[in-house]
Design goal:
about 270 residues, alpha+beta, Immunoglobulin-like, 2 domains, four-stranded antiparallel β-sheet, 7 helices, elongated
Length: about 270
């Protein structure tokens, strides 16, 4: 009987080793994912109330194992071709593996422009019903990035001056406008050109959106052709950091340059 007992012990040892390998591989991939995207630790990609330390980034079964979602499948295919997990993760950074219109990078790392990111890069509305060992209600808010920051420019119309006026220096003139935006107008800045619109200089900053402002005209030759900066919403949609990065800190900016940088909006007279 002893030989049989020895055989039994050996069989159990082999079974334990075989079963332990998928868990080891899964943990290695999970570790490499969070090493690549440390900002996602302690988020929904890491823990959910119904399944902590889950494997839902790559698997439909949040306990791990079984069919992989689109993100896990993309990693699996590359690992089958000889890549290690980390290289496979980096290889698919800019892909939209779940075809929801957002790259993996945006879904995982862009909390600034959306109110529900990070989202699961391998899940979409078309396949989320396949999740297991997790409360689907905890997953569904994090399928596709939503609640994007308002990035649509306000609609602004200058009522006066209409362009081409010649104004006396050291006097004041009334600038009037109408501005609308879905998020509301936080403030208005007024710019003045004295060279026919080639360059603009800021004349009034952070004034209330009252629709009217008494503007002092300095002793500058040329035509008065004002422009108003994009009214910025709160929280700000356009930062000074962006302007500095794109144009540098300049005392005067070419209006065309500024428009190209998506910072100023030309007005229709």
């Amino acid at each position: 009987m002893k030989p049989n007992k020895t055989l039994l012990r050996l069989s159990l040892a082999v079974m334990i080793m075989v079963c332990a390998w998928p868990a080891f591989a899964r943990n290695a991939i999970r570790r490499d994912f969070f090493d690549t995207y440390p900002q996602t630790e302690a988020t929904q990609l890491d823990d959910l109330p119904s399944n902590s330390n889950h494997c839902g980034v790559c698997h439909f079964d949040f306990n791990g194992g079984g069919p992989r979602n689109a993100y896990g499948l993309a990693i699996e295919v590359r690992m089958s071709g000889g890549m290690d997990p980390l290289d496979a993760i980096l290889e698919i950074v800019n892909l939209d593996v779940d075809n929801d219109g957002f790259s993996n990078l945006v879904e995982i790392t862009d909390p600034g422009n959306f109110n529900n990111t990070p989202t699961f890069p391998g899940l979409a509305a078309s396949n989320v019903n396949g999740v297991a060992n997790v409360d689907p209600g905890e997953v569904s808010p994090y399928i596709t990035p939503t609640g994007a920051t308002d990035i649509t420019a306000p609609q602004v119309t200058v009522l006066a001056p209409t362009g081409g006026e010649v104004l006396e220096p050291n006097t004041t003139t009334t600038v009037s406008w109408v501005a609308t935006d879905a998020s509301g107008i936080a403030y208005v800045n007024i710019y003045l050109s004295d060279d026919g619109g080639d360059h603009y200089r800021q004349m009034a900053r952070h004034i209330p959106d009252t629709g009217e402002y008494s503007l002092f005209i300095p002793n500058l030759p040329g035509l008065l052709r004002p422009a108003i900066l994009k009214s910025r919403m709160m929280p700000l949609r356009y930062s000074n950091a962006k302007l500095k990065q794109r144009l540098g800190w300049l005392s005067e900016l070419s209006f065309e340059q500024a428009v190209a940088a998506d910072y100023l909006m030309p007005l229709q007279p």
